């Protein structure tokens, strides 16, 4: 039985050939000698840059030559060329009226990415460097962060050492340059050790707010109680990261009083000797599962009044929203009630909404094989389950229409 949702880098260069030269020779007087061989043509030189023409900047009301503000009012004065320079009135601006000769030097622009990758680009002197290929994302470090942060952030910006302004890719290159990739990345809270679930939860409880815990390794964790006014998201870095419950048999990995979100690459794994459910959602609290999350491997003997194995949602305004992920491979041998679930149990005003993911392979009882039972809903006064389908193994009172099936 299972419950499951149906549902350029381009570089542009242009060079023009300008002229060619040859040579010849002549003999002494007397009989004409044989014609000599044609002289070898010289190599074409590179084009010089275009000169710049003065213009009036409407904002300043002064003459500008290229990117230089001469500071000379434009009214009644016309620029002219004298001795190869632009003159405005009686003032020699010192700016050549013709472009420089074509460059003969090349320079190397080095791009150092944050991840250690280096890319170089050879540029003609006086030409522009081209922006390098898009920067890779930067993976954040394991730790507890304030607010909501993703597993990684896009890198941006190229900077010369010691300069605060981003490099201007429209500036002529006149020498070798090294540029460093710089990204604005959040830093984890220093008071919380990396990959320490207990320290992260304790810090959040002492400083209510919204946090993201990035886990970069498989870890063990004892009983965690998330307080009111705390929102905590947990994400695994790079690949599946498991939080293995290591607490007492009669306690839970998470008892939620605020809001817990299980994000990508996070697995909560239970124990084989439990006597109560792994994750509990209390009144006025919530659990959300996203794609890539999982709750698995919890086995309990259970007791009367505790009907869930993986997740139990109990009480008014207790909410479990499953947008993705898996709840699978959990089992209870509790036979005290026909309402016991090997997976999810919801009752007493709880709301269970499923729009994605799967709940499958959860069992109950002592028979061989055990009975498949993924979800039990005792929904007197509770909200209906949304966008889910049933193929069997779901029982309860006032079962929503979405669960009506074979």
Spans of at least 5 consecutive residues with low confidence: 1-33, 35-50, 380-406
Count of alpha and pi helical runs? 1
Number of strands: 38
The total tally of domains equals 3
Averaged pLDDT: 76
What does this structure look like?
The chain has 406 residues and is mostly beta strands. The protein folds into three domains: 43 residues, no CATH class; 63 residues, Immunoglobulin-like (Sandwich), CATH 2.60.40; 207 residues. It has an eight-stranded mixed beta sheet with strand order 16-19-22-25-29-33-1-37, with no helix packed on it. A seven-stranded mixed beta sheet has the order 11-15-18-21-24-28-32, with helices on one face.
Features:
single chain; 406 residues; mainly beta; Immunoglobulin-like; 1 helix; 38 strands; 2% helix; disordered N terminus
What's the structural blueprint in terms of helices and strands?
Layout: E1 2-4, E2 54-57, E3 62-65, E4 68-73, E5 79-82, E6 85-88, E7 91-96, E8 106-112, E9 118-124, E10 137-139, E11 143-146, E12 152-154, E13 156-160, E14 177-182, H1 197-206, E15 210-215, E16 219-221, E17 224-226, E18 231-236, E19 241-245, E20 254-256, E21 259-262, E22 266-269, E23 279-281, E24 286-289, E25 294-296, E26 299-300, E27 311-314, E28 319-322, E29 326-328, E30 331-332, E31 344-347, E32 351-354, E33 358-360, E34 363-364, E35 371-372, E36 375-378, E37 389-390, E38 394-397
Parallel strand pairs: 8-14, 15-18, 16-19, 17-20, 18-21, 19-22, 20-23, 21-24, 22-25, 23-27, 24-28, 25-29, 26-30, 27-31, 28-32, 29-33, 30-34, 31-36, 36-38
Antiparallel strand pairs: 1-33, 1-37, 2-3, 3-4, 5-6, 6-7, 8-9, 10-12, 11-15, 13-14, 34-35
């Amino acid at each position: 039985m299972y419950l499951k949702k149906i549902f350029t880098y381009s570089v542009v260069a242009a060079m023009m050939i300008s002229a060619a030269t040859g040579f010849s020779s002549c003999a002494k007087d007397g009989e004409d000698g044989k014609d000599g061989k044609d002289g070898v043509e010289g190599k074409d030189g590179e084009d010089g840059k275009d000169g710049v023409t003065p213009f009036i900047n409407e904002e300043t009301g002064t003459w500008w030559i290229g990117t230089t503000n001469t500071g000379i009012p434009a009214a009644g004065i016309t620029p002219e060329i004298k001795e190869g320079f632009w003159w405005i009135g009686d003032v020699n601006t010192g700016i050549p009226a013709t472009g420089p000769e074509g460059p003969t030097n090349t320079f190397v622009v080095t791009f150092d990415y944050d991840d250690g990758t280096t890319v170089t680009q050879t540029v003609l002197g006086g030409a522009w460097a081209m922006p390098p290929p898009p920067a890779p994302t930067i993976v954040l470090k394991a730790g507890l962060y304030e607010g909501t942060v993703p597993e990684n952030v896009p890198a941006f910006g190229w900077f010369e050492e010691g300069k605060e302004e981003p490099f201007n890719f429209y500036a002529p290159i006149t020498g070798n340059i090294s540029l460093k990739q710089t990204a604005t990345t959040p830093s984890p809270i220093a008071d919380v050790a990396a990959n320490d679930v207990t320290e992260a939860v304790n810090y959040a409880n002492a400083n209510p707010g919204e946090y993201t815990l990035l886990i970069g390794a498989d870890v063990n964790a004892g009983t965690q109680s998330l307080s009111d006014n705390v929102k905590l998201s947990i994400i695994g870095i790079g690949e599946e990261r498991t939080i293995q419950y290591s607490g007492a048999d009669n306690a839970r990995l998470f008892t939620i009083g605020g809001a817990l979100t299980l994000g990508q690459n996070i697995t909560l794994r239970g124990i084989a000797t439990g006597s109560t459910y792994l994750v509990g959602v209390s009144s006025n609290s919530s659990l959300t599962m996203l794609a890539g999350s999982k709750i698995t491997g919890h086995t309990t003997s259970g007791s009367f009044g505790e009907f869930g194995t993986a997740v139990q949602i109990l009480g008014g305004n207790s909410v479990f929203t499953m947008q993705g992920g898996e709840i699978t491979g959990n089992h209870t041998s509790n036979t005290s009630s026909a309402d016991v679930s090997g997976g999810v149990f919801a009752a007493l005003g709880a709301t269970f909404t499923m729009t994605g993911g799967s709940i499958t392979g959860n069992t109950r009882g002592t028979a061989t094989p055990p009975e498949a039972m993924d979800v039990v809903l005792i929904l007197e006064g509770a909200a209906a389950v949304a966008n889910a389908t049933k193929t069997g193994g779901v029982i309860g009172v006032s079962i929503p229409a979405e669960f009506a099936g074979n």
